[in-house]
Amino acid sequence: MTELRDALRAVLDFLGAGNLVLGIVLLVATPFVDRFLIRRKRVSFRVHYNSKIGLGPEKLTDETSDSGQLTRLTRLLDRLSIVVIRIRNTGGYDIDPDDFDRPLTFTFGERVVWNARISEAGSAEVREKLRAGLRFFRTDGTDSANGTNGQVGPPVADERDSLRTVRDKMAQRMVRWIGGQAPAPKEPEAEPRWHGVRLETLALKRKQKIKLVVVLEEPEDHPGGETSKEITATGKLADNGIIKDEKRQRRFTLPRLTGALALVLTAFLVLSLVFASPPDDPSVRCVSGDITIRGSSVFMPTMKAMAADYTAACADATITTQATGSIDGVRWLASADPATSAALSDGLQQNPGGLVAQQLAVVVYHVVVHAGVPVETLSTEDLRRIYDGTYTDWNQVSPGSPSLPIRIVGRGQSSGTRQLFEKQVLNGGEGGLSSDECVEKNRDPRARTIRCERESNSDVVAMIGAVAGAIGYADAPSVAEARKKGDLKAVSIDGKTFDTAAGLASNYPFWTVEHLYLKGEPGADSLLAAFAEHVRKHDSARLRLKDSGYLPCVTPEGTPLELCSTR
């Protein structure tokens, strides 16, 4: 059982529960997409009746007394059969004759067509149009439109007549013919011998249906007994349309295949969720309770993921995360419950008032510009002149380049990222808010710079990618994600970059250490103490940090990273 659970869990982790749900939805939707978007035009048919007329000689005794004639009639009727085929539009669009690459055609094996008629067409006008397009044909290619005796024959029966009425009327015609009340028929070999029926003007509105009634004769050498049942339909609809026999049982159909796969995936997902719950990890110290963590909008997504990992292993723990900005988070902690509260800060805060800071990871930031800005590196002096309004056009930074206004996208006063940028790079203030959308100085026309603000680093990089001439800053993970679109680029500062892989600062100024602030030392048996230890030292937490682009401040061996102590 343990091996099965581990196997299910491994497959579920590999595929992902969300991907499985998406796969199930797509499989269920596939037949509908195929029917209503891909193969939208469909004609379906079903054979409702395929049998002998079934007239016995006892029904003819009042019509004639000539036993020889009666015998010949009986033998003839024994070879006659009627086929009734329902044809309907089961697609999502009306069907016209032009929609057929090849018209819908029916053949009946060795049986010869006596006559055919359209029934239940909805109106006499529609019925006549369809009837005018009926064509009888022979296997040699001759048809009723251009061959001998090319007129479509008289109707078999009125639409209101039942099959029994059709049968009785034909019997009466045979009796009158044998009794000499009608001209003698030609020899059978001189009459047209039609082998099939073709519907050349078939037009059906959406959901409309008609019936095709065909009277057939078996060949004279056909042995007595049951009539032949063979019916073959051919034809082709354009634009991936489909002509379908509703009575034909296919072992493999698209709805069956997709339904079976969806059922298998659903069963696997249920089994995985029920039986493959995450195994107990003895390395995780589980403590029950509730805690809340607020602060850095940069680091909070990673903290949320680590909290989810912990609560997955410890079901009685509840951890709430909220991105408010580093400064607001630390301010909130100062008056919060010390046993259930913590704050995240990008860098150390000044005068935290009795708060205890624990180092989590190195966070690297980049100066970012719109892809159309003609620079690859900026000096700290260039950045200071841009932010104090000395430079207002990029041709001042890069002489000879076309004129392009400089537009600054910054963070608000509560941002730890802004605080770090002002301290480590500008060595001064970033400037005031003068614009809403960073296009013009609509808030403060007298300001020296065009500068707007956004709530998070992800919003900052989105705005930089959207506004020509824009410049700003953001954490490395946010920049890496935004650069995939090609709308912005990161520039070096004084030609320097941070080597995260090697863990060396190389005198690159724009980086800090993420700190987890606690209000004093929590109780050793509290959830806050257990989780604080988990995010700093557990292997899964370190993996989360690396996946997010951060450098953990605790090595896999459990020793502090020297770089974290330098800032």
Automatic annotation (TrEMBL):
UniProt-listed InterPro entries: PBP_domain, Phosphate_ABC_transporter
Signal peptide: none
Organism: Actinokineospora globicatena
Record keywords: Membrane, Signal, Transmembrane, Transmembrane helix
Protein name: Phosphate ABC transporter substrate-binding protein
Annotated PBP domain residues: 286-533
Transmembrane segments: 20-38, 257-276
Keyword Transmembrane appears in the UniProt entry: yes
